[in-house]
Amino acid sequence: MSASERFDCHYCKDSLLGKKYIMKEDTQYCTKCYENLFANCCEGCSLPIGCNCKDLSYKDRHWHDQCFKCAKCSRSLVEKAFAAKDELLLCTECYANDYSSKCSTCKKTVMPGSRKMEYKGNSWHETCFLCHRCQQPIGTKSFIPKDTGYFCVPCFEKQFAYQCCACKKAITTGGVTYQDKPWHRECFLCIGCRKQLSGQRFTSRENYPYCLECFSNLYAKKCVGCTKAITSLAGAKYISFEERQWHSECFTCMQCSVSLVGRGFLTQRDNILCTDCGREK
């Protein structure tokens, strides 16, 4: 037989005529050489995975099909769901028993891959996480914890939330109490200019809230000197004489402008004068 007619193993050079062989990258090998050169080593038994065996792989690791078993109960994992833990492969039952959390409602295992709800270290099956009031699954909707229960937002508002006396809607966070009535912060406004009063100084008249500016403009007495409002709400001091009022800093002699606070003074028609200027008149 000529060299051109030979058909040999690329590695050991034995003839492959009439024998089983394997092609790899356009090169032929006898089965023995192929297994020695290229076969993967089984994670289960540490033996090569031969040409006549199935090679099952997971994350660059390989097994004979008969070696692909649960590390705890030894049941076959071929074509079954499994989970990995610390390099070990486990059937879903073993994994669930050893590592999965228990549902806080039904106390049964929350199986790997199933939909679940977690909150503050507790777990529930999605169908077990129910609103304490309407007993409907909360799912991905917002909820509010209260005491030992959990409530969907509509149920919480119906059972626990105060209603704003302005807009009549539920107050779920924060809020302001005025005259024993609840308000949203954004609804508690000055009756005059509609400015928010939450966190600001304010006063009231006839049970209506006012910011200091509106109250002063509407109800405070006016200073004879500067004609601006006089209010003690901001701590201002003032002088009152014959039904007229002055800011302390405005109570000055009409002629020489000296302060008359704590001093004697004279009147001349609607004017007030220090005693010196009054004598000159």
Automatic annotation (TrEMBL):
It holds the Pfam family LIM_FHL2-3_N. InterPro entries: LIM_FHL1/2/3/5_N (IPR056807), Znf_LIM (IPR001781). Residues 40-100, 101-162, 221-281 form the LIM zinc-binding domain. GO terms for cellular component: nucleus; Z disc. The keyword Repeat applies. One of its GO terms (molecular function) is transcription coregulator activity. It comes from the Eukaryota. The keyword Zinc-finger applies. PROSITE patterns: LIM_DOMAIN_1, LIM_DOMAIN_2. It is found in: Nucleus. Keywords: LIM domain, Metal-binding, Nucleus, Repeat, Zinc, Zinc-finger. PANTHER family: FOUR AND A HALF LIM DOMAINS PROTEIN, FOUR AND A HALF LIM DOMAINS PROTEIN 5. This is Four and a half LIM domains 5.
